Amino acid sequence: METADTPTDETFAQLLQRLKDTYPGLTDSEIARRVGVHVSTVNTWVHGKRTPRPDALRAIAREFPKFTEAELFAAVGRRAPGPLSPDQEERLLQLFRELTAEQQSITETQMRALAEYNRSDGS
């Protein structure tokens, strides 16, 4: 859903600037500390040289709740993963355990392909 607060076609570097504007006094060092990455990593994001991995995007959303996972993932050109509760995770793991080794390998390959598709533009 587009609103005035979630611009479209925003790069991740632009989103980081908006994050800093939203949280006055926020520095690259503080972002790095709170997200659990090195400040040089944040610097590559700020300058548009790289974009964060999904775990870092989730950490940013957790640490800076005015920014949703959906808008963070969109800014790096990815679709946001669906939510996964601990109960869902346990059910999926239990189902996976019931598969043969060959079926587990096939399922893992399919899941990797879907995850790679989601890392692309998805079109």
From TrEMBL:
Which PROSITE patterns does the entry link to?
A: HTH_CROC1 (PS50943)
SMART domains (UniProt xref): HTH_XRE (SM00530)
List all membrane-crossing ranges.
none
Q: Where is the HTH cro/C1-type domain?
A: 25-72
Source domain of life is Bacteria
**InterPro entries, per database record:** Cro/C1-type_HTH, Lambda_DNA-bd_dom_sf
Question: A Pfam family this protein belongs to?
Answer: HTH_3
Recall the GO molecular function terms of this protein's record: DNA binding
Name the CDD domains on file: HTH_XRE (cd00093)
Instruction: Please state what the protein is called.
Output: Helix-turn-helix domain-containing protein
> What species is this protein from?
Streptomyces wuyuanensis
